[in-house]
């Protein structure tokens, strides 16, 4: 026995339910080609009432006297409620936690690792027949007295005493089915490891998407800057053009109408001046002298 394991892997044990008593024990009937489902039968009726509790990597594997290392008790993905005998392997459905019970001194409680830990291995106290074992949440029907049956002898089969090369982790999603063997078996790929390439690809795609988004935003900013510069340049040219037009255009006071009015005004002034002088000269002639003679 190792640390944390109160059960000897070289011994056979019998299971008695606290409700039914010691007149019935867990067994799988007569030895046949394939094992029957576990149930409570009359004590000493079958050799299959003897069980090995093999401890490996912190969990228990429950094997039967008649079938040795070939089969183990467990539950399947398709049927969580009724324990059956399954081909031996390290899958979660064949892994059991065995802890001390809460009602009777020396009682134990079994939980399967494939199921939620509120589910326990026992009988239904409300059922009319108490010989059928099930997985349910009733703690009262799940108290087991587990005793060594010395008369069954010791376990000497090497295969029944050899640990698994690997067992399925509770965090894994796939069930491994390694057989007990002294030789090294081919490791089963860890689902978490097999997902690493896809995770890396997803990460790379995420980075690429971020880079594309950054480039797009940068391109938009550049376009906006170019448009702003072009608009500024256009406004600058427009202002210069307006300034040049204002510089070369004629002032309002030099309009063609006003330019023509200036000579006309000067001519009128000259006519007025010369006309007055002529009239003045005529007015000052001596008496009896006619202008015609002066001419």
From TrEMBL:
The keyword Transmembrane helix is annotated on this UniProt entry: yes
Skewed-composition ranges (Low complexity): 172-186
Membrane-spanning segments: 207-231
Compositionally biased region (Polar residues): 187-198
Keyword Transmembrane helix: yes
Protein keywords: Membrane, Transmembrane, Transmembrane helix
Region spans: Disordered: 172-198
Protein name: Peptidase A1 domain-containing protein
Source organism of the structure: Scytalidium lignicola
Taxon lineage: Eukaryota, Fungi, Dikarya, Ascomycota, Pezizomycotina
């Amino acid at each position: 026995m190792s640390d944390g394991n109160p059960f000897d892997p070289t011994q056979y044990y019998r299971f008695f339910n606290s409700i039914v008593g010691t007149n019935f024990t867990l067994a799988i009937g007569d030895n046949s080609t394939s094992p029957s489902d576990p149930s409570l039968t009359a004590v000493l009726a079958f050799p299959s009432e003897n069980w090995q509790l093999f401890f490996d990597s912190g969990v228990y594997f429950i094997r039967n006297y008649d079938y040795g290392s070939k089969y183990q008790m467990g539950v399947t993905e398709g049927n969580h409620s009724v324990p059956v005998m399954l081909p031996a392997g390290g899958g979660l459905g064949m892994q059991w936690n065995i802890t001390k019970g809460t009602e009777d001194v020396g009682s134990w409680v079994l939980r399967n690792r494939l199921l939620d830990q509120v589910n326990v291995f026992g009988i239904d106290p409300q059922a009319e027949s108490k010989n059928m074992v099930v997985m349910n949440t009733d703690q009262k029907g799940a108290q087991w007295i587990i005793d060594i049956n010395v008369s069954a002898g010791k376990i000497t089969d090497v295969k029944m005493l050899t640990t698994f090369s690997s067992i399925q982790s509770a965090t894994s999603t796939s069930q491994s089915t390694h057989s007990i063997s002294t030789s090294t078996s081919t490791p089963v790929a860890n689902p978490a490891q097999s997902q690493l390439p896809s995770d890396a690809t997803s990460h790379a795609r995420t980075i690429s998407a971020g880079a594309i988004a950054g480039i797009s935003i940068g391109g938009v900013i550049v376009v906006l800057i170019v448009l702003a510069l072009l608009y500024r340049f256009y406004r600058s040219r427009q202002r210069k053009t307006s300034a040049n037009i204002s510089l070369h255009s004629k002032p309002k006071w030099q309009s063609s109408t006003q330019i023509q009015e200036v000579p006309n005004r000067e001519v009128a002034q000259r006519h007025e001046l010369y006309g007055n002088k002529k009239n003045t000269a005529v007015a000052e002639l001596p008496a009896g002298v006619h202008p015609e003679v002066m001419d």
